[in-house]
Hints:
The radius of gyration is 26 Å and the shape is globular. It has 29 helices and twelve strands. By secondary structure, it is an alpha/beta fold. Helix 7 (176-186) runs antiparallel to helix 12. It folds into four domains: 4-125, Rossmann fold; 144-305, no CATH class; 309-399, no CATH class; 438-535, DnaJ domain (Helix Hairpins, Orthogonal Bundle), CATH 1.10.287. The chain is 54% helix and 10% strand.
Amino acid sequence: MSKTILIVEDDKSVQKLLSDAxxxxxxxxxxxxxxxxxxxxxxxxxxxxxIMDVLIPVxxxxxxxDRIRKSPKGESIPILMISGVYRAVSHRNEAIxxxxxxxxxxxxxxxxxxxxxxxxxxxxxxxxxxxxxxPESRGETYADSMGISERYEVDRQEExxxxxxxxxxxxxxxxxxxxxxAFYQKRATGVLxxxxxxxxxxxxxxxxxxxxxKSNLLNECxxxxxxxxxxxxxxxxxxxVKLMKDSGRQQGTILIEMGAISPHNLKYGLExxxxxxxxxxxxxxxxxYQFNLKDDFETPITTLELSVASLVYEGIKRNYxxxxxxxxxxxxxxxxxxxxxxxxxxxxxMLMDEDEENILKSIDGSRTLRETMMNSQISRERxxxxxxxxxxxxMIVINPYPAGQEAPPPIPVAPPPLPVKQAEPPKIxxxxxxxxxxxxxxxxxxxxxxxxxxxxxxxxxxVNQMSTVSEVKKAYIALAKEFHPDRIPNSAGREVRKMAxxxxxxxxxAHNTLIDEQKRQEYVSKVMQAGKAEAADDVTRLLxxxxxxxAGEEFLKKRLFSKAVENFREAIELYPEEAExxxxxxxxxxxxxxxxxxxxxxxxxxxxxxxxxxxxxxKAYLFMGYIYKGINRDxxxxxxxxxxxxxxxxxxxxxxxxxxxxxxxxxxxx
Length: 670
């Protein structure tokens, strides 16, 4: 029977790296980001092992371990602690002595260390690598109404797509990883239909990134996934389906109210559902595909958050036939591995452990594929999958010449031809950064872009006119990794990613100029002497708008609604691309005159605009819910609060409102 591991970690990248690796070993995984919910999950679920970070919100790792150890259920549960901050020997000794943890590892942790601890803990019960299920063996049980609805939606959309095909082919000839990479390189936006026997999948792609997936397999519906991942029991699933049919409410909210799942684990489960649908395609031996250019599809609240390179590598690790990989790479055995000279491809974000990062760093064009494989410290199969992923994504190129003899080609992957017809000009629809935790990302990019446009290349890269070529390259690589557009989550929105792409291009231009002696001299004489140019209008406008927005927030806190409305309106006039400005404007407007029907309409229109610009803005749904509640439309308010939680599991205001509405319903029934 599969063992269940609870991961308590608030760093999304570490959380994802651990959960994917452990699931690859055959474990079931539960994930929480703070100590309070972790304790609740431990108390209500069957957990066999806990991996916890020390520095987590609400209740830190030491406090959580103490609470667990004091409970009868937690006296003997194996606990592994990790930390990137508390590295002193005293912390390690205290954790081992006081909380009886198995080990206390410093970040970044090596996966092999964790696997070895788990193998020692479980012995013969260690699950090992679980083979992926065959597509033809899928059952179709535990279907809920949403799963059935999606099945019909896939069939309907297939029929619509048959009238407008931009490109088509078969996965037998074009591997799925290569197809995804082609969309990424061309920044394509559209709908990809894939069919294998009776299985149909639709992958929605925006700006080259897969964002969500629909499937006609009923066993890929949310409830079935949650049961399979041991996040809920079959009994809890059946009860939630019944309550969902009776009330018409969302299954996730019902599961939260039942105490069957936490908001964070629900979000994790929804994302896991999308990944399962996508990763399944990597295991298809063949399958027809067709791609249609389309940019007017609606973006849902829950989307795939991983970069394309990370999705490709994870799909290859989970389901791609290693025999096909070995056959593909055989032709390159005596050719040399080079880092891609194209920085946009070379510095893609791919989730890797320390061993894999070291292998990637060692690829410099001096060794052949055979030599690289022979010198590897990881298993042959793992190495094959890693090199194949690097090749498919274009992070490396392979050619017959070692470094210095002949430059490798600029782009390694020969992607299949994408849309043969001209795409219509995309509709102007900006999706801005919304979740509060992402605001720091936007501000960092805006500030750096301001330096890029108003400063000079030396300031931008953090070097001086006396810096060597080596120092310039080192500074550029660090910044290229930090500001690569792949690092921008979907929740940050398309507008922020466009800024990141513009910044990345300027960084690359600065690097190319300063490493060339002649170009550097020309730059110093022509540009530096001319003085700093004025910052670009868009950056200036955004910085000014942020000032107005922050002032509006302060007035809102002080309940000075008219002044808040005025500042939010000015923020919108300065930078109408930002959805958060519209959300706060609508909420302040409503509060300024809650009885005025004309003002009410304007407020709702502003909130609807915010949601259109960014479907992941929890505040917009929360404010809309408050308004509906204020006009006694509890049914509509409830749906808005549910969406707010789906966007942000930490939206405690929405959780509280749902509980109050549920209590109100029960009182009315008495």
